[in-house]
Write a structure and sequence with these properties.
The protein is an alpha/beta fold. Helices cover 32% and strands 16% of the residues. An eight-stranded parallel barrel has the order 1-2-4-5-6-7-8-9, surrounded by eight helices. α10 links the parallel β8 and β9. The radius of gyration is 18 Å and the shape is globular. Bound molecules: SN-glycerol-3-phosphate and calcium ion. SN-glycerol-3-phosphate binds next to β2. The site of calcium ion (CA) has 3 residues, from β2. This is Glycerophosphoryl diester phosphodiesterase. Pfam families: GDPD (PF03009).
Length: 264
Protein backbone atom coordinates (compact mmCIF):
# COMPACT_ATOMS: atom_id res chain seq x y z
CA UNK A 1 0.00 0.00 0.00
CA UNK A 2 1.46 3.39 -0.89
CA UNK A 3 2.08 5.63 2.07
CA UNK A 4 -0.49 8.43 2.36
CA UNK A 5 1.19 11.77 2.96
CA UNK A 6 0.07 13.26 6.27
CA UNK A 7 -1.78 16.54 5.80
CA UNK A 8 -1.48 19.11 8.57
CA UNK A 9 -4.66 19.45 10.59
CA UNK A 10 -6.99 22.35 9.82
CA UNK A 11 -6.15 25.37 11.88
CA UNK A 12 -8.25 27.24 14.39
CA UNK A 13 -6.12 30.40 14.59
CA UNK A 14 -3.88 31.15 11.62
CA UNK A 15 -0.41 32.05 12.88
CA UNK A 16 1.83 33.85 10.41
CA UNK A 17 5.58 34.38 10.63
CA UNK A 18 6.13 37.91 9.34
CA UNK A 19 8.90 38.08 6.68
CA UNK A 20 9.91 34.74 8.18
CA UNK A 21 10.29 35.06 11.92
CA UNK A 22 11.95 38.44 11.58
CA UNK A 23 12.53 39.00 15.29
CA UNK A 24 15.06 36.17 15.23
CA UNK A 25 16.67 36.12 11.78
CA UNK A 26 17.20 38.48 8.83
CA UNK A 27 13.80 39.15 7.25
CA UNK A 28 12.90 37.45 3.98
CA UNK A 29 15.77 34.95 3.96
CA UNK A 30 15.62 31.15 3.93
CA UNK A 31 16.96 31.06 7.49
CA UNK A 32 14.13 33.33 8.68
CA UNK A 33 11.59 31.09 6.94
CA UNK A 34 13.20 28.07 8.64
CA UNK A 35 12.74 29.66 12.06
CA UNK A 36 9.09 30.33 11.22
CA UNK A 37 8.65 26.68 10.27
CA UNK A 38 10.38 25.53 13.47
CA UNK A 39 8.08 27.79 15.48
CA UNK A 40 5.10 26.03 13.85
CA UNK A 41 3.68 29.01 11.97
CA UNK A 42 0.64 28.14 9.84
CA UNK A 43 1.89 30.48 7.14
CA UNK A 44 5.22 32.09 6.38
CA UNK A 45 4.72 35.63 5.07
CA UNK A 46 7.08 37.16 2.54
CA UNK A 47 7.18 40.00 0.01
CA UNK A 48 7.68 39.35 -3.70
CA UNK A 49 9.03 41.77 -6.34
CA UNK A 50 10.63 41.24 -9.76
CA UNK A 51 14.32 41.52 -10.59
CA UNK A 52 15.35 43.49 -13.71
CA UNK A 53 15.21 40.23 -15.67
CA UNK A 54 11.73 39.44 -14.39
CA UNK A 55 12.45 36.81 -11.72
CA UNK A 56 10.21 36.84 -8.61
CA UNK A 57 12.49 37.50 -5.63
CA UNK A 58 11.72 38.05 -1.95
CA UNK A 59 12.50 41.42 -0.40
CA UNK A 60 10.43 44.00 1.46
CA UNK A 61 11.76 47.40 0.39
CA UNK A 62 11.74 48.53 -3.24
CA UNK A 63 15.44 49.35 -2.86
CA UNK A 64 18.19 46.94 -1.83
CA UNK A 65 19.99 49.22 0.61
CA UNK A 66 18.46 48.48 4.02
CA UNK A 67 18.72 44.69 3.98
CA UNK A 68 21.77 43.99 1.78
CA UNK A 69 25.33 45.22 1.24
CA UNK A 70 24.48 46.49 -2.25
CA UNK A 71 26.17 49.86 -1.68
CA UNK A 72 29.50 48.11 -1.11
CA UNK A 73 29.16 45.67 -3.99
CA UNK A 74 27.70 48.10 -6.56
CA UNK A 75 28.74 51.59 -5.33
CA UNK A 76 27.85 53.31 -8.61
CA UNK A 77 24.29 52.06 -8.91
CA UNK A 78 22.32 54.56 -6.75
CA UNK A 79 19.45 54.57 -5.86
CA UNK A 80 19.78 50.76 -5.83
CA UNK A 81 16.23 49.92 -6.86
CA UNK A 82 15.31 46.23 -6.88
CA UNK A 83 13.96 46.67 -10.42
CA UNK A 84 17.38 47.82 -11.70
CA UNK A 85 19.30 44.66 -10.72
CA UNK A 86 19.35 41.28 -12.41
CA UNK A 87 18.97 38.10 -10.40
CA UNK A 88 22.62 37.30 -11.07
CA UNK A 89 23.59 40.64 -9.47
CA UNK A 90 21.17 40.29 -6.57
CA UNK A 91 22.57 36.85 -5.80
CA UNK A 92 25.98 38.46 -5.18
CA UNK A 93 24.58 40.39 -2.22
CA UNK A 94 24.77 39.54 1.47
CA UNK A 95 21.27 39.78 2.97
CA UNK A 96 22.22 38.52 6.43
CA UNK A 97 25.13 40.52 7.86
CA UNK A 98 23.08 43.65 8.56
CA UNK A 99 21.08 41.60 11.08
CA UNK A 100 24.02 39.77 12.67
CA UNK A 101 27.43 38.48 11.64
CA UNK A 102 26.29 34.90 12.25
CA UNK A 103 23.95 35.34 9.27
CA UNK A 104 26.69 36.46 6.85
CA UNK A 105 26.22 34.96 3.40
CA UNK A 106 22.41 34.66 3.51
CA UNK A 107 21.07 35.56 0.08
CA UNK A 108 17.99 37.30 -1.22
CA UNK A 109 15.89 34.23 -2.08
CA UNK A 110 13.85 33.65 -5.19
CA UNK A 111 10.18 32.76 -4.75
CA UNK A 112 10.99 29.36 -6.23
CA UNK A 113 13.61 28.74 -3.53
CA UNK A 114 11.08 29.55 -0.83
CA UNK A 115 8.38 27.30 -2.29
CA UNK A 116 10.93 24.52 -2.57
CA UNK A 117 11.83 24.93 1.12
CA UNK A 118 8.35 25.45 2.60
CA UNK A 119 6.39 22.87 0.58
CA UNK A 120 8.08 20.01 2.41
CA UNK A 121 7.18 21.47 5.82
CA UNK A 122 3.93 21.73 7.76
CA UNK A 123 3.83 25.48 7.20
CA UNK A 124 2.30 27.27 4.26
CA UNK A 125 2.88 30.53 2.40
CA UNK A 126 1.09 33.86 2.35
CA UNK A 127 2.84 35.85 -0.34
CA UNK A 128 2.52 39.62 -0.41
CA UNK A 129 2.80 41.18 -3.85
CA UNK A 130 4.80 44.23 -2.80
CA UNK A 131 4.34 47.39 -4.92
CA UNK A 132 2.94 45.40 -7.87
CA UNK A 133 2.28 48.67 -9.71
CA UNK A 134 6.06 48.80 -10.31
CA UNK A 135 6.07 45.34 -11.90
CA UNK A 136 3.46 44.91 -14.63
CA UNK A 137 2.67 41.22 -15.04
CA UNK A 138 3.99 40.22 -11.62
CA UNK A 139 0.75 38.36 -10.82
CA UNK A 140 1.29 35.88 -13.68
CA UNK A 141 5.01 35.55 -12.86
CA UNK A 142 4.10 34.52 -9.30
CA UNK A 143 1.51 32.05 -10.58
CA UNK A 144 4.06 30.59 -13.00
CA UNK A 145 6.42 29.90 -10.09
CA UNK A 146 3.69 28.22 -8.02
CA UNK A 147 2.62 26.16 -11.05
CA UNK A 148 6.20 25.11 -11.80
CA UNK A 149 5.97 22.73 -8.81
CA UNK A 150 3.69 19.92 -10.00
CA UNK A 151 0.78 19.37 -7.61
CA UNK A 152 1.94 22.09 -5.24
CA UNK A 153 -1.01 24.48 -5.47
CA UNK A 154 -3.69 21.82 -5.06
CA UNK A 155 -1.95 20.12 -2.21
CA UNK A 156 -1.25 23.41 -0.40
CA UNK A 157 -4.86 24.54 -0.84
CA UNK A 158 -6.18 21.25 0.52
CA UNK A 159 -4.66 22.15 3.89
CA UNK A 160 -5.25 25.93 3.57
CA UNK A 161 -1.51 26.48 3.20
CA UNK A 162 -1.41 29.03 0.35
CA UNK A 163 -2.69 32.59 -0.09
CA UNK A 164 -1.60 35.90 -1.58
CA UNK A 165 -2.17 39.43 -0.35
CA UNK A 166 -1.38 43.04 -1.29
CA UNK A 167 -1.98 46.64 -0.34
CA UNK A 168 -2.77 47.06 -4.05
CA UNK A 169 -6.33 45.76 -4.28
CA UNK A 170 -6.45 46.07 -8.09
CA UNK A 171 -3.52 43.66 -8.24
CA UNK A 172 -5.48 41.22 -6.07
CA UNK A 173 -8.48 41.51 -8.41
CA UNK A 174 -6.15 40.63 -11.29
CA UNK A 175 -4.72 37.72 -9.34
CA UNK A 176 -8.20 36.42 -8.49
CA UNK A 177 -9.09 36.37 -12.18
CA UNK A 178 -5.89 34.57 -13.17
CA UNK A 179 -5.84 31.93 -10.42
CA UNK A 180 -9.26 31.99 -8.71
CA UNK A 181 -8.63 28.95 -6.53
CA UNK A 182 -5.94 30.72 -4.46
CA UNK A 183 -7.34 32.94 -1.65
CA UNK A 184 -6.56 36.64 -2.03
CA UNK A 185 -6.15 39.10 0.83
CA UNK A 186 -6.59 42.87 0.91
CA UNK A 187 -3.97 44.49 3.12
CA UNK A 188 -5.12 47.58 4.97
CA UNK A 189 -8.54 48.55 6.26
CA UNK A 190 -11.36 48.15 3.76
CA UNK A 191 -14.09 50.68 4.62
CA UNK A 192 -17.07 48.95 6.20
CA UNK A 193 -19.36 50.31 3.48
CA UNK A 194 -17.23 48.58 0.81
CA UNK A 195 -16.80 45.19 2.51
CA UNK A 196 -19.75 43.50 0.83
CA UNK A 197 -18.53 44.44 -2.65
CA UNK A 198 -14.95 43.27 -2.00
CA UNK A 199 -16.33 40.12 -0.41
CA UNK A 200 -17.67 39.12 -3.84
CA UNK A 201 -14.16 38.12 -4.92
CA UNK A 202 -11.70 38.63 -2.04
CA UNK A 203 -11.17 36.15 0.79
CA UNK A 204 -9.29 38.08 3.46
CA UNK A 205 -9.04 41.60 4.89
CA UNK A 206 -5.69 42.02 6.64
CA UNK A 207 -5.40 45.32 8.53
CA UNK A 208 -2.88 46.82 10.92
CA UNK A 209 -3.95 45.74 14.41
CA UNK A 210 -4.23 49.36 15.55
CA UNK A 211 -7.29 49.70 13.33
CA UNK A 212 -9.06 46.52 14.47
CA UNK A 213 -12.13 46.53 16.72
CA UNK A 214 -14.56 43.74 17.58
CA UNK A 215 -17.18 45.44 15.40
CA UNK A 216 -14.80 45.55 12.44
CA UNK A 217 -14.04 41.84 12.82
CA UNK A 218 -17.78 41.14 12.80
CA UNK A 219 -18.26 43.29 9.70
CA UNK A 220 -15.51 41.45 7.79
CA UNK A 221 -17.05 38.12 8.76
CA UNK A 222 -20.51 39.31 7.72
CA UNK A 223 -19.06 40.01 4.27
CA UNK A 224 -17.86 36.41 4.07
CA UNK A 225 -14.16 37.12 4.53
CA UNK A 226 -11.58 36.25 7.16
CA UNK A 227 -9.35 38.73 8.95
CA UNK A 228 -5.63 38.40 9.63
CA UNK A 229 -4.07 41.31 11.46
CA UNK A 230 -0.47 42.55 11.42
CA UNK A 231 2.08 43.03 12.98
CA UNK A 232 1.28 41.90 16.50
CA UNK A 233 4.33 41.25 18.65
CA UNK A 234 3.23 41.82 22.25
CA UNK A 235 1.24 39.22 24.20
CA UNK A 236 -1.37 41.70 25.45
CA UNK A 237 -2.11 42.85 21.89
CA UNK A 238 -2.28 39.26 20.64
CA UNK A 239 -4.76 38.40 23.40
CA UNK A 240 -6.91 41.42 22.60
CA UNK A 241 -7.02 40.54 18.89
CA UNK A 242 -8.00 36.96 19.73
CA UNK A 243 -10.74 38.27 22.02
CA UNK A 244 -12.05 40.35 19.11
CA UNK A 245 -12.32 37.13 17.11
CA UNK A 246 -9.68 37.62 14.40
CA UNK A 247 -8.97 34.54 12.31
CA UNK A 248 -5.23 35.05 12.19
CA UNK A 249 -2.31 37.01 13.58
CA UNK A 250 0.79 38.03 11.68
CA UNK A 251 3.77 38.34 14.03
CA UNK A 252 7.54 38.68 14.14
CA UNK A 253 7.46 36.25 17.10
CA UNK A 254 5.48 33.11 16.19
CA UNK A 255 6.80 31.32 19.30
CA UNK A 256 5.20 33.91 21.60
CA UNK A 257 1.87 33.53 19.81
CA UNK A 258 2.12 29.75 19.95
CA UNK A 259 2.69 29.87 23.71
CA UNK A 260 -0.30 32.16 24.18
CA UNK A 261 -2.57 29.92 22.09
CA UNK A 262 -1.46 26.89 24.10
CA UNK A 263 -2.68 28.61 27.29
CA UNK A 264 -6.10 29.61 25.96
O1 LIG B 1 1.63 40.71 6.25
C1 LIG B 1 1.36 42.03 6.51
C2 LIG B 1 2.54 42.91 6.53
O2 LIG B 1 3.64 42.25 5.97
C3 LIG B 1 2.31 44.18 5.81
O3 LIG B 1 3.30 45.14 6.06
O4 LIG B 1 5.26 46.46 5.51
O5 LIG B 1 5.56 44.31 6.66
O6 LIG B 1 4.91 44.35 4.28
P1 LIG B 1 4.81 45.05 5.61
CA1 LIG C 1 4.71 42.06 3.93
Amino acid sequence: TPAIAAQPEKVSVITTAHRGAMAYAPENTLVAFKVGIEQKATWIESDVQLSKDGVPILIHDTTLTRTTNVEEVFPDRAPWKVADFTLEEIKQLDAGSWFGEEFAGEQVPTLAEMVSQVRSSRSGIIMELKAPELYPGVEQEVIDVFDSFPGYVNSALASERLAVQSFNWDSMATYAELQPEVPVGLLGTVPVADLAAYGQWADQVNPNFGAVTADYVDAVHAAGMVINTYTVNEVADMARMLDYGVDGIITNRPDVLEDLLAQR
